[in-house]
Write the structure tokens for this entry.
Amino acid sequence: MCKMSVEEQVIENAKNGKLLTHKCTDCGFLHLSTAYFCLKCGSKGFEDVLLEGTGQVATYTIITVAPAGFEKYTPYAFVVLKLDNSDLRISGFMAGIANPADLPVGTRARITGFDERGIIIEKQ
């Protein structure tokens, strides 16, 4: 049985509405799973922690002219989600957002999946 890469683990957890993070084993500082050393103390020791993929929209950009291959998804928002119970922020794709009235900053949202677009975020 082969072990999944960190990227594969992030994808599989996102499909289940969770976010794989790394917690420093020395100081407890929480990082996204792409960290190789602790930003707070410099340690290289981590333990995996799964967070619920829920939070509030911190900011976003509405895409109306999409890059090649993504035209069928417009309009959409590229969202930065501040996760509950942490200072972490994760970015992802939210469909059907055409103007700022569709997505006020602070809107409750959650990770709902992962596909060719990346992490999928939906309003709660």
